[in-house]
Design a protein that fits this description.
The chain is an alpha/beta fold. The chain contains eleven helices and eight strands. It is an enzyme of class 5 (isomerase).
Length: 256
C-alpha cells in the first residue's frame, strides 16, 4: 500500500513572521504516523524551516535546484546544498518553471538525476495546458514528460526513488479543479506509462494531485485508487486549510 504524501508549496510567498506562524500551527498538529507531510518554502527560509521542523514529523523540501553540481552559477542552488540543509524532497518541472523559465523535459530529467545522486526525493511535476486538453493531447503530453525522465532513470538504481505530481496547468491557482474522475484517469495513465519501464516501480511510485486541491475536494480526490496525495499551493498558506487536507489524507490511511 502506498503511503499518502501531502506537500505544501509556498511558492514566492511569506516572511519570517508568517513562516513561523504557519510552521507553529502545522508542526503542532503533525505528529501523526498516518501520512507523510512536507513543506517547500522559498529558498531563503529553508534554514529557518529546518530548525523549526527538526523536532516534528514534517519533512523539508525545496522548490527547485540547479542542473549543475557547483561552480560559477550565480543565483543557482545545488542539490548538495539542499541536502546539507536537511531537505528530503525537491519540486522539479513545476509548470511555473516550465512556462516562466523555459525549462524543457530534458532539463527536468537532468535535475532529477542531480537530486537522486545526493539522496533527495524529486517530485517531478507533469501536466497539460488548457489548449492541450481541449485539442485532445493530454495523454501525449503526459507520456512525453514521463518518458524523458524515465529514459534518464532506466540505467539508475534510483528508478523507484522519485515521486510524480500531476498538475493540470489549467487548474493551478485558478480555483478550478479537475473532477476526481478526470484526475484519476490521468493518474492511472501516468502509472501505465511507468509500467512500461518497471511493473514494480509503477506500483511503488507515488503520484500526487496538484491542481487546486482544497479541504472541500480533498476527500474525494484522495479516495481515488491512483491518487497518493496532494501537492498543495494556495491552501498550504492557510494553516487550517492545509491541516484539513492532512486530516483527509490521514483519515483515508487509517481506514485502509
Amino acid at each position: 500500500m502506498r503511503r499518502k504524501l501531502v506537500v505544501g508549496n509556498w511558492k514566492m510567498n511569506g516572511n519570517r513572521q508568517t513562516v513561523l506562524e504557519l510552521l507553529g500551527a502545522i508542526g503542532a498538529r503533525t505528529a501523526r504516523p498516518e501520512c507523510d507531510v512536507a513543506i517547500c518554502p522559498p529558498f531563503v527560509y529553508l534554514d529557518l524551516c529546518e530548525r523549526v521542523l527538526s523536532a516534528t514529523a514534517v519533512a523539508l523540501g525545496a522548490q527547485d535546484l540547479s542542473e549543475h553540481a557547483n561552480g560559477a552559477r550565480t543565483g543557482e542552488v545545488s542539490a548538495t546544498m539542499l541536502a546539507d540543509l536537511g531537505c528530503r524532497y525537491v519540486l522539479l518541472g513545476h509548470s511555473e518553471r516550465r512556462t516562466s523559465h523555459g525549462e524543457c523535459d530534458e532539463t527536468v530529467a537532468r535535475k532529477t538525476l542531480r537530486a537522486l545522486a545526493v539522496g533527495l526525493n524529486p517530485i517531478v511535476c507533469v501536466g497539460e495546458t488548457w489548449d492541450e486538453r481541449m485539442s485532445g493531447r493530454t495523454y501525449d503530453v503526459l507520456s512525453r514528460q514521463i518518458r524523458v525522465v524515465a529514459d534518464a532513470l532506466t540505467e539508475s538504481e534510483h528508478f523507484m526513488s522519485f515521486t510524480v505530481a500531476y498538475e493540470p496547468v489549467w487548474a493551478i491557482g485558478s480555483g478550478v479543479t479537475a473532477t476526481a474522475t478526470v484526475a484519476q484517469q490521468a493518474h492511472a495513465f501516468i502509472r501505465q506509462c511507468l509500467a512500461r519501464y518497471s511493473a514494480t516501480a509503477s506500483q511503488r511510485v507515488r503520484i500526487l494531485y496538484g491542481g487546486s486541491m482544497k479541504p472541500d475536494n480533498a476527500p474525494e480526490l484522495l479516495a481515488m485508487p491512483d491518487i497518493d496525495g496532494g501537492l498543495i499551493g494556495g491552501a498550504s498558506l492557510d494553516a487550517q486549510q492545509f491541516l484539513s487536507i492532512l486530516d483527509a489524507a490521514a483519515g483515508l490511511e487509517a481506514v485502509q
